[in-house]
Sequence to fold (339 residues):
Amino acid sequence: MGVDYYKILQVDRNAKEEDLKKAYRKLAMKWHPDKNPNNKKDAEAKFKQISEAYDVLSDPQKRAVYDQYGEEGLKGQMPPPGASGFPGAGAGAGGPTSFRFNTRNPEDIFSEFFGFSSPFGDMGGSRASASGFPRGMFGDDIFASFNRGSAGEGSANALRKAAPIERTLPCSLEDLYKGTTKKMKISRDVIDASGRPNTTEEILTIEIKPGWKKGTKITFPEKGNELRNVIPSDLIFIIDEKPHSLFKRDGNDLIVTQKISLVEALTGYTVQLATLDGRTLTVPINSVISPTYEEVIKGEGMPIPKEPSKRGNLRIKFNIKFPSKLTTEQKSGLKRLIP
Fold:
């Protein structure tokens, strides 16, 4: 029966031009030898099959011959329907009009379709190597060049990646304490099946983990604009911490400053705080509070991302309000009470 071109392109026999283009674009990009340096032989064979199938089915006259006579008829000496005008057609001596199908270079088909010879590197000229694929302008087989580049040596054929796009993602301290999910709407250009850019919108979901710090990066690989011959940019969101009205963060610790009077500093004070997760924390302090005093509550700080069961500390500092002036009587009283 010969080769089934429809099966190779993964389309049905009623496939229209747009269906063929879409199928060829997908399969040619997948099986191009430059993209498969570790599976070169299979990729070359598959790429040739895909190219030949598209060459035949995208040409109405070749497709008509193939549909009627199959691969054997296409590559043999069969008269095509409406043979006049078919490439290679000519009248034999008293015989019917006939033609012979000539296989085209897969890279020529690829170049015509995409407008460039390879999305994975500049291939240079079109002089063929022993494998049937083009060589570079200096006679180097493109596959050898690609393999050298992937082994760590410099290669002019390496596909360039666009610079990353970085965006700030502001988060409240509550978000970073409890964790949350944020939805980000982005708009970017995507190359369609015909090779034209179309603007599309997409919603990205970002999972903020408890304890993440300012500067934490969340990367969405290749979510930038698609361009020919360029790997799309990575889209990077960078966590930024919004100022909080009560707490300040110091690594995994939380710091809060309480304003108290001198009397409270000397006689005792009870701290009452609303925590970032909505609890009420009561901390009695019976010792004398000096200006440098710090009360440490273990395990009431920020979650530690790498150790979810652990937390930093809550450090309570004090701003003691001293009286602006004292009467003579008050001074004498303090001297009596405080030796």
User: Anything to note?
Assistant: The first strand starts at residue 90 and ends at 91. Confidence is low (pLDDT under 50) at residues 80-99, 121-157. Residues 260 and 320 are 5 Å apart (CA to CA).
